[in-house]
Hints:
four-stranded antiparallel β-sheet; Tetrahydropterin Synthase, Chain A; alpha+beta
Amino acid sequence: MSPRSARLARLSRSVTFSACHRLHSKSLSDEENLKLFGKCNNPNGHGHNYRGRELISSLARGIDPVSGMVMNLTDLKEYMQEAIVEPLDHKNLDKDVPYFSEVVSTTENLAVFIWDNLQKLLPQGILYKVEVHETEQNVVVYKGEETIVK
């Protein structure tokens, strides 16, 4: 490997937050929502503790030859605090986060929200994926991909 080549590395950091929500689509009737979302359609909502390695932002780029880092972890911590913890922690997603007033607050949409927020703060092209663990069994990974909805 030549001295001017950089090694690619992926850096991940996890954060913790708690939030509540109600899975409910304005496009469906109350009966259809109940059938689709079951107990997660409870009118009073339900909560999740997104803990430990349960929300991970992963960055990918060359290791800086001067600092030896993909990114300064202190900076990444601050970006994640601003993009994730501040808007989401101890919030009712449906009532306190304007994004979810028109978007169903599924974990899939939560991952997209987090991706979009981080993209605004991080250097262009560095964000590799957002991984959200709603529970020990339910995980969503979003890498910024889009598709055409028919």
